[in-house]
Specification:
Elements: E1 4-5, E2 10-11, E3 13-18, E4 25-30, E5 37-42, H1 44-52, H2 63-74, H3 77-83, E6 93-94, H4 96-102, H5 107-123, E7 128-129, H6 131-141
Parallel strand pairs: 6-7
Antiparallel strand pairs: 1-2, 3-4, 4-5
Bound molecules: zinc ion (ZN).
């Protein structure tokens, strides 16, 4: 399954997939040319149909994930995530950069995405969410390359 950015005539890159657990699915695609994003939402019946057709949303192969994990590790994402703030069980703060990045998420899935990252940080005692933490969370939670 692919989406085409008509102004750029370019295949959009798969950016994110969310499966809240109630059978619905949200997939976000972004255009590498103009940065335009679009999202596809499916209800439980449609999700099942897409699954039964064997459609791989995002269309990437499984081995790419392993490489991505290594790459984000080499970037130092993990270290920064834990040096940034001492473990706190309390509320999770969002750095301005992280909030900025969250603005790129389509508004109708932003709340869900924010909750996933916040839960991730809280469970690990990370007091401040930064873009680096978001990167680590994405690969840890398998939110990319699916
Ligand atoms: Zn475009």
């Amino acid at each position: 399954m692919k989406f085409l950015c008509i102004p750029c005539d370019e295949v959009m890159d798969f950016a994110e997939r969310q499966i809240p657990g109630d059978g619905t699915m949200a997939a976000v695609f972004a255009c590498g040319g103009c940065g335009r994003e679009m999202a596809m939402l499916t209800n439980p019946m449609e999700t099942q149909m897409v699954s039964s057709l064997g459609v791989k949303v995002g269309g990437r192969e499984v081995p790419a994930q392993a490489l991505e994990g290594v790459r984000s590790g080499l970037d130092g994402g993990h270290e920064e995530a834990f040096v940034e703030a001492p473990p706190t069980p309390g509320p999770v703060a969002w750095s301005p950069e992280a909030i900025e990045r969250l603005q790129n998420v389509p508004s109708f899935v932003r709340g869900m995405v924010k909750r996933i990252y916040t839960d991730y940080a809280r469970e690990r005692g990370i007091g401040t969410l930064t873009p680096e933490v978001m990167d680590t969370a994405r690969s840890d939670l398998g939110l990319e390359g699916m």
